Amino acid sequence: MAAAGLWRAVASRSSSLGADLQALAAIQHAAGCSQLMQLSSSLSNPWQCRQLSTSSSSSSSSAAPASAAEVATSDSSLRLNLQAPADEQGLVSSLITKHSSKQLAAEHIGLYYDFNKALVPEAFRPFHQAFYSPRPAKLQRRGGCRSLQAEFDSTGSSSLMWRRSSQELAAAISSSSSEPPAIHLRGPAGAGKSIAVVQLVEWARNNGWLALYIPAAVELTRGGFFYKRDDGTYDTIISAQHILKSFADSHDKQLAGHRLQLPESLQLLQSPAAAAAVGGAAGGAAVSEGRDSLRDLVMTGLSTDDNARLAVDCCLLLVKELAALSASVPVLLAVDGYNALHWRSDYGRTISRSPRGKPAYQYRQELPVHKLNLARGFRLLQRDDLAQCRVLVADSASGAVPADLAVPNKAAAEYHMPRFSPVETAHALFYYHERGLVPAPPSQQQVAAMRALTNGSGEELRRWSVSITQTGMGLL
């Protein structure tokens, strides 16, 4: 992107940035070692980041690179010098913690930690592609959490920032309140909703929870095959088996230890259809006896590619079984792109008409989402049978679904995902410098300019940091 184009983008946002740009101008004209915290205060920064100590070696210019210590504190009573990190590893000593997600707390807000990819296999593209026939390299389907994939692909690392929103959501979900939380996560595109959801799924599984995660609800409304039931509804086998396999891969050791709680689940496993499916998978052996665990239910849905109804029923019963277990085992149900379940589907069927005295014709009839059994079953905010399950859903603001689409909500709390604060922007730029995306540590002016340029969008911050560097603008 050309330099002029980038600055036109800043100008086009000036009307919505008001206070931000005033604070930016004040910082750009400040003399001496003005603190980035002053910018944070002027923008009503909600983040509370931990103080980090470094050695002394101050800078004499307001344009000099700020240190990790300076941008990692929001306590206005502290006065830290602008200085470089004490050791050669730089940012690693100050902004990256060795704690796992289960150990993170309020004092780690603003720090980067190692995301355990093995705990969330369904967030990544290769897992998703395994359910479809191969396609040419440039036409591969992109499943999983795309925001997470883009972040890891860009940085070459599996570290994520533990934001204040992450801490608040984790605290709300783990609350011991008599009313189990249901949280509807909303906010602008690029604010980090998808990253927050996948962070909470990894955090929950790391703490021993059972977590059912759908990284892209829109995939329940398109792709694969559909089969009609006698009642006029439809089953989508590939989507159902995708959910079952991701849950089995993530919780294989736990599933066998949980007995089925519902009579309808036991009846399904003892049905002729289930016996035929499992028997065929086992070479015809009689295997219906003694099959009463959660793992048996999941594997029954995965045992055949010929019975869509069986796969969908097993998936929907899995949700009910998790609700029944939630009184004794913590359970998280997480759906990203939730508003797609209240929009339109890509499924359709051909209808033939032969009007009297007129030529016959055909047309395509779209299948409404409420006719798709699996998609309708995951409209979690409309259900009242989830017992003590924690529910976390996030809307997609990517443009595939109208931003003003009304999403029915019985009793869930709405959480508005905030944009990146000045402190978070600084942390991200220091991290990108450490990963080689930005050639030099950012100064206070550069941090403020990048926040104004991106309007606090984490996605644009990552993308434009590289673009600006490549154009040689000298901004970074």
UniProtKB/TrEMBL annotation:
Supply one GO CC term from the record.
mitochondrial small ribosomal subunit
Q: What is this protein called?
A: Small ribosomal subunit protein mS29
Cellular location of this protein?
Answer: Mitochondrion
User: Which Gene Ontology MF annotations are present?
Assistant: structural constituent of ribosome
Concerning its family, UniProt says:
Belongs to the mitochondrion-specific ribosomal protein mS29 family.
Q: Which organism is it from?
A: Tetradesmus obliquus (Green alga)
Keywords in alphabetical order, please: Mitochondrion, Ribonucleoprotein, Ribosomal protein, Transit peptide
Keyword Zinc tagged: no
User: PANTHER family under this entry?
Assistant: MITOCHONDRIAL 28S RIBOSOMAL PROTEIN S29, SMALL RIBOSOMAL SUBUNIT PROTEIN MS29
Pfam families hit by this protein: DAP3
First-listed, main subcellular location of the protein, grouped into a coarse class: mitochondrion
Cross-referenced InterPro entries:
Ribosomal_mS29
